[in-house]
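Summary for the steering committee. The consortium agreed at its last meeting that each partner would contribute one worked example illustrating the joint modelling workflow. Our contribution is presented below. We chose a case with several input lines so that the handling of multiple components could be demonstrated. No manual editing was applied between input and output; the record is shown as generated.
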Amino acid sequence: MTEPAPPLAPPPPPSPPPGLGELFRGMLQVALSSFGGGLSAWSQRIVVEQRRWLDNEAFMTGLTVARLFPGPNQINMAVYIGSRFHGLSGALVALAGMLLLPFAVLMLLGLAYFELHMVMAVDPVLSGVIAASAGMALSMGFKLAGGYSRDPVALLLAAGSFLAMTVFHVRLIPLVLIAGPLAMAWYWPRQR
Amino acid sequence: MSGSAALVQGAVQACMPLQLGDWRSLLAVIGDFLSLSLFSFGGGNTLLSEYHHLAVEEYCWLSSRQFADLYAIAEAAPGPSSMIVGLLGMGAAVREGPLWGVLSGLAAEVAILLPSTLVMVAASLSWSRLRDSPWRLAFERGLGPITLGILFAVGLKILRISDHDTPAYAVSALVCLLMLRTRISPLWFMAVAGLLGALGLVNR
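What follows is the complete predicted structure of the assembly.
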């Protein structure tokens, strides 16, 4: 019923760095295991505990980097793991391993949607799924909001970005290009 | 007469799907995705309203309703939900045939992932030097609140385009609450909500 929670094991000794083929198979295994959800937990279980490519600390560092830089977190995590061992080619191989199957499934679903005109038959089901996914989309903001409740400047920045997009229809790229440097200047580390 | 004809044509043109056979418009679309890739902070979901703008308003590949359908499919399908870009790319070209649909989907997915991947490779390899840099600290703290505002705007946008009846809004609100308070897999929410939809209890 819940996502697979990784058991807390003592840090295992790292094994020798994986070759490209091994990297591909490992990420394929992560993708296959996570078909029911919980991609992050599965990737930790497989990469840290089973295959021992990274210790837990290196894995956590990877999550930080993945969250910090642009790109979907899980995909960035695969890039981090791959590039650690084989640079750009490792990153691309890890990405391919992680995305090949889900992407193929998605393309089949897309073709069924567009080509077979199954829309009429599944439309009521889809209405329900959309209601659930809209709730999930809404939860993303709330998930982050708690961390900023005591920082009036952060709340002002958040409210400003929200209003710029919803009321004034500012596009994302100009918004980030204008608000980003202002926010960075305000939060530039100062000796106090 | 010619005036009203031009008006009608203008109205039609306002939602003419882009001809992807024209390589210049194809490059324009690929360029849009390549540049958006570098702005996908906060896990990539921040781009959803940009995707909606491109696919529905600017290039008219999809209706708003289709966009909501594809978002739900991408969320329910295995793998990272940001793969919705592959479905949007497919929607852009699928009228030319299924093969073009798949190729276009693949091209869109590669375009949205490639720039962020290159940045991520560079970041992974130079992290030890970046770790304590003031740029990194300012970037992390400064981009956080902006991401927060964008995520709320995106959530509202998805809620708006999903065009619910009242019970469906209640489902959305409940799912939002459960996502925050429990560790239940989102797949269960989808399954139960899908069943409610099949039974005709939630509609749009």
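The CA atoms of residues 130 and 136 of chain A lie 10 Å apart. Chain A touches chain B through 102 residues (CB under 8 Å).
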